[in-house]
Amino acid sequence: MLTRVDGGPAVVVCDTCRHSAGQRSDAAGMTGGARLAEVLRGLRDADARYAAIAIQPMPCLFACQDHCTVHLRAPGKVGYVLGRFTPDAAAARAILDYALAYAESVHGRVAYADWPDGVKGHFIVRIPPAGFVAE
Questions:
Q1: Contact at 8 Å (CB) between 91 and 42?
Q2: Neighbours of 71 (CB within 10 A)
Q3: Whose CB among 15, 16, 31, 71 lies 3.0–4.6 Å from 57's, allowing a Cys bridge?
Q4: b/e for 74-103, b at 16 or more Cβ within 10 A?
């Protein structure tokens, strides 16, 4: 039931997420989450700044009310679940830019002034690392 993946900074992408609140897949039959994962991988692979951020697709993050959902995580850091994205390059770049700042942070907290506009309003939940609670 569990698959071991790299333990470093990662964007876990729900690859079964809907395209939008009213549409499951695109004209090619691809779910919004699968399309978002594809775009994230493409941008990461094309830009060396993002090389340290793993893109890890996973079926269903159980955030079905919020389509195109991702979970940002890294060892010893607060994690975040974000959703309601459009599976396109603008959203993927905002997610990756935030993931860079997140990976460079001490505990996973990124100053609001450093958030890309494309992630503002997309946060659903924050998750403390095992053995800790956030202040």
A1: no
A2: 21
A3: 15
A4: beebbbbbbbbbbbeeebbbbbbbbbbebb
Distance of CA 19 to the CA centre of its chain: 15
Q: Which two three-digit tokens encode residue 76?
A: 């010893």
User: pLDDT value at position 21?
Assistant: 87
> Is the pTM above the cut of 0.90?
yes
Q: Do 77 and 102 meet the contact criterion of CB atoms below 8 Å apart?
A: yes
Strands 79-82 and 70-73: antiparallel
Query: Which is it for the CA torsion 120, 90, 7, 20, positive or negative?
Result: positive
The amino acid sitting at 82 is L
For range 96-113, the mean pLDDT: 96
